[in-house]
Amino acid sequence: MRFSLWSFIVDQWSQQPPVLQVDLTGKTVVVVGANTGLGFEAAKHFATMTPGRLILACRSQSKGQAALDKLKAETGYAKAELWLIDLAEFESVKQFADRFERDGGRLDILVENAAVGPGPKYEATKDNWEIALQVNHLSTSLLAFLLLPAMIKTAQQHSTTPRLVVVSSDTHYWVKMDKTLSEDPDLLKTLGSAEYCTEKNMKQRYPLSKLFTVFFVRALNARIPPSTPLIVNAVNPGYCYSELRRSLVGLRVVINWLMDKALAFSSEVGSRRIVWAALSHQEHPDTLRGEYVSSFAIQEVSDAVLSPEGVKVQDRSWDELVDILGKVDPRVHSIVEKYLSRDISM
């Protein structure tokens, strides 16, 4: 599918429906990146549905506590919890998963919303990866792997169908990978290296990281046995007012200001799409397996994903991702072996 500029404008100018409401009594919801923007607004919506537990997974203690206080004041929901996680550090992701394994109990909905919009220059994490690639793709995937057993256990014990919702973007439609890069046997390592991350290449970093979230969702879904009651999907919240673009400089700041005024949704409006991906199709949840969701509907992904070359990149990047994350945490390999299938079908 091709997504034109006009399609983007029409989508942004379209009237958005109200938030979907579902009774979440007794269920556990985790929202990553919940202290501000889309994540906070999604958490507020979930809070109005009286979940048994609502965990706000945030990087900052002070900002997370402020979000917790604000959520209680605005919704009256008093059972929200603040758990710390920093996706720029693999160790923090592992510690979050360890804590959940110890005392998290059931897990019905996991919304992976945290992301960074990189600046024009290469910035490395403590783990020596380019920060946007690690936060938006590697750590997001690591957390999904490590919490997968909790979601499957929840399904078995409570006869329910948990959901993993990964926030992506319609910017993935506009990514074009050159042939040399797409055929690179160490694709992720190349993308995360200082040598590759020139100022020119960094202009495409955010859309590229969101393309890889689509690859991850589709690859993971293809390996989840059909008998496993677990739904994983990717969602586009639309173009919203966001702190993600705070790293912009120069003329791009002016362009961004103009686009915000002309096109941007509020974070609350964008969060309705995230909630829809997490709660819609209650009677037939399998409808959303592995799908890309936008504008409150299932949409076809980009030609870059669907093409034969895209399928090869998806499979190769999956293998490399499992290898990389398996070295970060050996549990990844055991989870893949125990819960996922080698016989994939798209």
Automatic annotation (TrEMBL):
**Claim: Secreted is one of the keywords in the record:** no
Recite the UniProt keywords alphabetically.
Answer: Oxidoreductase
Q: Which GO molecular function annotations are given, in alphabetical order?
A: oxidoreductase activity
Q: Which Pfam families match?
A: adh_short (PF00106)
Which PANTHER family would you find in this protein's record? PHOSPHATIDYLINOSITOL-GLYCAN BIOSYNTHESIS CLASS F PROTEIN, PHOSPHATIDYLINOSITOL-GLYCAN BIOSYNTHESIS CLASS F PROTEIN-RELATED
UniProt protein name: NAD(P)-binding protein
Q: Could you tell me which species this protein originates from?
A: Mycena albidolilacea
